[in-house]
Design goal:
485 residues; mainly alpha; 28 helices; elongated; mRNA binding; PPR_rpt
C-alpha cells in the first residue's frame, strides 16, 4: 500500500520536527508519484531551511507556484520568507516580500518574520521601523513582535533597549511568555555585566511570570540562577516545581539536582535521582550523572558517589569531568589511595586527564607530605600536555611545608613565579605558616617582605599566623599589636 499525499505530508512534518531533513527530502521525492499537496511542499521548504539550502527552499517554492498556483497564499510566502531570514539572507527575503506585496496584504506573521530577520542581522532600527509600519497598517503587535525586538537587543547587549522593550510590553499589558523569559535568562547567563545579569533575574519576581508553564523557560531560569548562585530564587523555583505539573526531562532533572546541590540539600538531589531513574524510568545521560555525582561529592558522600559511578559506568559514557569529580572528592577527603585508584581506572578506560584532576591528585599526596608521588604525578601531567596552574604550585608548596622542607617550598615558589603565575594570599600564607611551624623566623620576615613587594593584602588567616609567630618569638607586645590591628 502506497501512502497518499496527506500521509506523506504528515510523515514529512514529523521528520522536520525530529531534525531529520534528509528523511523529509526522501519523503518529498517519493510523494511525487502519489501527488504532492501543499503541506508536502511546505515541509520540504522547511526541511531545506533546516539544512541551510536556501536555493533548494526557493526552488521548491517556485515548483509549488507552477504545480499548484491556486494554493499559494500569505502563509506560503510567510514560510519561505521565514526560511530566508532564519538563514540570514535578508535580500532574498525582501525580494520575496516585494513579490508578495503585489498579490496579497501582509499579515501579523509577515511583519513579525521581517522583524525577526532584521534582528538576526543586528539591525534593531530596521526592526523598529517594521513595528511602526505594522501599526500604521492597523495591526496590533503581539508578544511575538516584542520577542523579536528583545532577542535582537539581547544579542547586541543593548540593555537600554532590553528594558525599554519590557517597559513597552508592560504599557501594552502584554504578559511575558516563555520565550521572553528564556531571552532574559540568557541575558543573565551570558553577560559579563554583573549588575545587569542580576537585574535580568528580577523578571522572575514578577507575579505575571509563571516559569513552570513551559519546560524550556523553567530550564533556562534554573540554569541562570545556578550560574549566578542565586539561592533565594533557586529555592522559589524548586518550590514552584513541586506544585506544578511539569514532566521533567533528563536535562531538567540534571538542573534540579544541581540546584539542590547549591542549596546544600543532598537528600533532595537523591530524591530527584530516584524519581527519574526508578519512578519515571528515564536513563540518565553523562551530564545528569555528572550532576548527581558532583552533588554527592559536595555533600561529602564520596562513597555513595563512587557506588553510583560503578552502577552506571557501563551504561553512560563517563568523561574527564566525571572522573575528575570523583578524584577531587577522594582528594578532599584525604584519601590519596582511592583517588589514585580512580586515576588508574581513568587511564585503563582511555579517558584523558585534565589539569583539574591532576592538581587534585597532587594535592591529595602533598597534604600528607608524599612529595615523591606528587612529583611523579607532575611528570605525568606534563607528559599529558596538561599545564599546571597556581593551585598546582600551591599544593606543592604546602606539601614541602608539611615536610618542613622550606628550601624546596621556596624553590617551588620561584618556579611558579618564573612560570608567569602571580602569588596570592593563600600561597603566601602557606609559606608563612611553614616558616612559623619550623621556627624559621628570619625566613618568615623575608616572606612578609615578599608579600609587601607583590602588593598582596593580608587576610584574617595571615593575621592569625602573625600572632602565633610573635608569640613563639616571645614578643607578646608585637602579638597584641597585630591583634589590635
Amino acid at each position: 500500500m502506497e501512502p497518499d499525499a496527506v500521509m506523506y505530508g504528515s510523515l514529512a512534518k514529523f521528520a522536520v520536527k525530529a531534525g531529520r531533513p534528509e528523511l523529509s527530502r526522501e519523503l518529498f521525492s517519493k510523494a511525487e508519484g502519489g501527488g504532492r499537496g501543499l503541506k508536502n511542499y511546505m515541509w520540504a521548504i522547511r526541511s531545506a531551511g533546516q539544512e541551510g539550502d536556501l536555493d533548494r527552499a526557493v526552488d521548491t517554492f517556485r515548483q509549488l507556484q507552477q504545480s499548484l498556483p491556486e494554493t499559494i497564499d500569505v502563509m506560503s510566502y510567510n514560510i519561505v520568507i521565514d526560511v530566508c531570514v532564519s538563514n540570514k539572507d535578508m535580500p532574498r527575503a525582501l525580494g520575496l516580500l516585494a513579490e508578495m506585496r503585489q498579490r496579497y496584504q501582509l499579515n501579523l506573521v509577515t511583519y513579525n518574520t521581517l522583524m525577526k530577520g532584521h534582528c538576526i542581522a543586528g539591525d534593531i532600527g530596521a526592526a523598529r521601523g517594521v513595528l511602526r509600519e505594522m501599526e500604521e497598517a492597523g495591526f496590533v503587535p503581539d508578544v511575538a513582535s516584542f520577542s523579536c525586538l528583545l532577542s535582537g537587543a539581547a544579542k547586541a547587549e543593548d540593555f537600554d533597549a532590553i528594558w525599554a522593550t519590557i517597559a513597552e510590553m508592560d504599557r501594552r499589558r502584554l504578559r511575558p511568555d516563555s520565550y521572553i523569559i528564556s531571552i532574559m535568562m540568557q541575558v543573565s547567563r551570558r553577560t559579563s555585566n554583573t549588575a545587569e545579569a542580576l537585574r535580568a533575574l528580577t523578571v522572575l519576581d514578577r507575579p505575571d511570570v509563571k516559569i513552570c508553564e513551559d519546560e524550556v523557560a523553567f530550564n533556562t531560569a534554573l540554569d541562570a540562577c545556578i550560574f549566578r548562585r542565586d539561592r533565594a530564587r533557586l529555592e522559589r523555583a524548586i518550590g514552584a516545581y513541586d506544585h506544578s505539573q511539569v514532566q521533567a526531562s533528563v536535562r531538567t532533572y540534571g538542573l534540579l539536582i544541581k540546584a539542590c546541590s547549591i542549596l546544600r540539600r543532598t537528600s533532595r538531589c537523591q530524591e530527584f535521582w530516584r524519581d527519574m531513574v526508578e519512578v519515571r524510568r528515564l536513563p540518565p545521560n553523562d551530564i545528569c550523572l555528572g550532576c548527581m555525582i558532583d552533588a554527592l561529592v559536595e555533600g561529602h558522600l564520596v562513597d555513595d558517589a563512587l557506588a553510583l559511578f560503578q552502577e552506571w559506568k557501563a551504561h553512560v559514557k563517563c568523561d574527564t569531568i566525571l572522573y575528575s569529580t570523583l578524584i577531587k572528592g577522594f582528594a578532599s577527603a584525604g584519601d590519596a589511595d582511592r583517588a589514585m585508584a580512580i586515576y588508574r581506572d581513568m587511564q585503563s578506560s582511555g579517558v584523558r586527564m585534565n589539569h583539574i584532576a591532576y592538581t587534585a591528585l597532587i594535592n591529595a599526596h602533598a597534604r600528607k607530605g608524599l612529595m615523591k608521588r606528587a612529583e611523579a604525578l607532575f611528570e605525568d601531567m606534563e607528559k599529558d600536555g596538561c599545564k599546571p596552574n597556581a593551585i598546582t604550585y600551591s599544593s606543592f608548596i604546602r606539601g614541602h611545608c608539611v615536610r618542613g622542607d622550606l628550601s624546596a617550598a621556596l624553590r617551588c615558589f620561584q618556579r611558579m613565579l618564573d612560570g608567569g603565575f602571580s602569588a596570592d594570599c593563600v600561597i603566601f600564607n602557606t609559606l608563612l605558616d611553614g616558616c612559623v611551624q619550623a621556627a624559621n623566623f628570619e625566613l618568615a620576615d623575608e616572606v612578609l617582605e615578599e608579600m609587601k613587594a607583590h602588593e598582596v593584602e593580608p587576610s584574617n588567616y595571615t593575621w592569625s599566623i602573625l600572632i602565633k609567630m610573635w608569640s613563639k618569638r616571645g614578643e607578646l607586645d608585637r602579638a597584641f599589636e597585630v591583634l589590635r590591628a
